[in-house]
Design a protein that fits this description.
The protein is an alpha+beta fold and about 150 residues long. The protein has helices at about 1-15, 20-40, 65-75, 105-110, 115-130; strands spanning about 20, 45-50, 55-60, 80-90, 95-100, 135-140, 140-150, 150-154.
Length: about 150
């Protein structure tokens, strides 16, 4: 209930801000994953790694959630397990977000898939113009997203 309450607070209040702290965004993503863990139990493995100082980084709310949601929508192995590795790396000029999730091409294929990534890219173009780099691609058993955005600080 506490995780759901924190998500509701985020949705109701923080989404109205143009920018929020990266720490809040990561906390929101962690809460979302914790709720999914209740549904998936031992079938979900997740790790989040943070490299560099992120306390002062700000960004638009809900920037990473669509990618994480896709992990649960499309990222399942034939065994039913989901594995997620998330990395946030800050350097002087940019933030790199790397997301890898388990992927089984036959079970992940869906004729309706793809519209979410198109919408994400459009939003990034509105927010960052040409100042971002987004790559997403499947490998044999993983789907990988790499997003680089410019650093904005408080």
């Amino acid at each position: 209930m506490l995780k759901l309450s924190e998500i509701m607070e985020y949705v109701l209040y923080d989404v109205n801000h143009k920018r929020i702290s990266l720490v809040k965004e990561i906390n929101y993503v962690q809460n979302y994953i914790e709720l999914e863990k209740i549904r998936k139990g031992d079938l979900l493995e997740c790790s989040i790694e943070i490299t560099g100082k992120i306390d002062d980084v700000i960004l638009p709310p809900f920037l990473f959630l669509p990618f994480v949601e896709n992990c649960f929508k499309h990222g399942q192995l034939s065994s039913g397990k989901i594995s997620i590795e998330m990395n946030f790396k800050r350097n002087e000029k940019e933030l790199e977000f790397i997301l890898k999730n388990s992927y089984h091409q036959e079970s992940a294929y869906n004729e309706k898939s793809g519209i979410g990534l198109i919408n994400i890219k459009r939003r990034l173009e509105l927010l960052y113009g040409n100042s971002f780099d987004l790559k997403n691609y499947p490998t044999e058993d993983q789907y990988i997203v790499v997003l680089n955005i410019p650093i904005l600080c408080e």
